[in-house]
Specification:
193 residues; alpha/beta; Rossmann fold; 6 helices; globular
Length: 193
């Protein structure tokens, strides 16, 4: 069994934020596979199904991003999932807008949701599918980008120009997930990185 997690914040106010690209991509994948989020369990919205001969549990944590690990660690224990079978989809400030990267393990890169998962699991060797959202740019008023600027950036929606790019990336993420499930990590990395 595989567990596929899309990171984001619950609630309509956050639905289209850059930080919620994990939720957005997972929702697209679920629709493409005919899977509905029909259960609430362990502070998460979950769905189960079969994709590419794999039983899958799709997860959108309903804790806020910074507490994602609480929900995900409970579900991993409940479903007795090996960490090699965990895939986490999340936004990445350090990737250019619309780029995706798949890798196993590594640091959190400062992503609070990933930090929470690592802290709760005690390990960081799970697979991540990172979706680039780019970084905010400096303004005329300030040449430095503060933590507050970054928080404001990830908690707002994409601009119309950015939406055009993101709408082409979302189906590509679904293809990458399917490739991971059907052909494995190495093939997916070679094809999508």
């Amino acid at each position: 069994m595989k567990i596929i997690v899309g990171l984001g914040n619950p609630g309509r106010g956050y639905a289209n934020n850059r930080h919620n690209i994990g939720f957005i991509c997972l929702n697209h994948f679920a629709r493409a596979q005919g899977i509905r989020f029909d259960k609430k369990q362990d502070k998460a919205r979950i769905s189960t199904g079969e994709v590419a001969d794999n039983k899958v549990v799709l997860v959108r944590s309903q804790t806020y991003m910074n507490l994602s690990g609480e929900s995900i660690s409970r579900l991993i224990k409940r479903f007795d999932i090996n960490l090699n079978d965990l895939l986490v989809i999340h936004d990445d400030l350090d990737l250019p807008l619309g780029k995706i990267r798949i890798r196993q393990g590594g640091s959190s890169g400062g992503h609070k949701g990933i930090e929470s998962i690592v802290a709760c699991l005690g390990r960081q060797d799970f697979v991540r599918l990172r979706v680039g959202i780019g970084r905010p740019t400096a303004t005329e008023d300030s040449s430095e980008i503060s933590d507050a600027d970054i928080i404001a950036y990830v908690l707002t929606g994409f601009t119309p120009d950015q939406k055009q790019i993101i709408t082409t990336v979302i189906p590509r993420v679904s293809e990458a997930i399917y490739c991971l499930l059907s052909e494995g990590l190495t093939a997916a990395m070679n094809k999508y990185n």
